[in-house]
Amino acid sequence: MRAVIQRVLKASVTINGQETRSIGQGLMVLVGIEAQDGEEDISWLSKKIVNLRIFDNQEGVMDLSVKDINGEILVVSQFTLHARTKKGNRPSYVEAAPPNISVPIYEKFKKQLSCSLGKEIVCGEFGASMDVELINNGPVTIIIDTKNKQ
């Protein structure tokens, strides 16, 4: 699994011209899934995300997690995170899992992330064409791949 995590003041997802889901301060998480991803990836990534100390404490040092600040999380599936761009100019998405594999993993990931956070998270709609809007605070953007845990 690959995730792009952005510290945000607010974020929202619009589907078919209607803002359907939004959050205030917290994390915007774009997640891409590969066919070989499984339970271990889901558990490790969800715990890593909610415990990332990327929010400022009173001294202005990034030392607090989204849990510590009682922040929110917006998750959006994004198969393009696994784009291969080595050859030619048209990206290849062969490493991204097809929907029959990625949907169940995505659903488990959302549940595990919510459980790790201790409250409901907000999600985009899998497979939908979405407009995502956010105010990246910092800016702080972190990329995590479960295949690179070491």
Would you mind describing this structure in some detail?
By secondary structure, this protein is an alpha/beta fold. The protein has a single domain, classed as 3-Layer(bba) Sandwich (D-tyrosyl-trna(Tyr) Deacylase, Chain: A), CATH 3.50.80. The protein has 2 helices and 8 strands. The strands form 2 sheets. Strands 1, 2, 3, 6, 7 and 8 form a 6-stranded mixed β-sheet that branches. A two-stranded antiparallel ribbon has the order 4-5. Helix 2 links the parallel strand 6 and strand 7. Helix 1 packs parallel to helix 2. The protein is globular and about 45 Å long. The two termini are 15 Å apart. 33% of the residues are buried. The model has no long low-confidence stretch (mean pLDDT 94).
Per-chain topology:
Layout: E1 2-15, E2 18-23, E3 26-32, H1 39-51, E4 55-56, E5 62-64, E6 72-77, H2 99-117, E7 122-123, E8 130-145
Parallel strand pairs: 3-6, 6-7
Antiparallel strand pairs: 1-2, 1-3, 1-8, 4-5
Mean pLDDT: 94
**CATH architecture label:** 3-Layer(bba) Sandwich
Q: How many DSSP helices?
A: 2
The chain-level structural class is: alpha/beta
Terminal CA distance reads 15 Å
How many independent structural domains?
1
Order of helices and strands: EEEHEEEHEE
**CATH fold-level topology:** D-tyrosyl-trna(Tyr) Deacylase, Chain: A
CATH homologous superfamily grouping? D-tyrosyl-tRNA(Tyr) deacylase
Helix content: 10-25%
Dominant shape: globular
Top-tier CATH class: Alpha Beta
* Main sheet characteristics: 6 strands, mixed
- Low-pLDDT runs of 5+ residues are none
| Radius of gyration over C-alpha positions, nearest whole angstrom | 15 Å
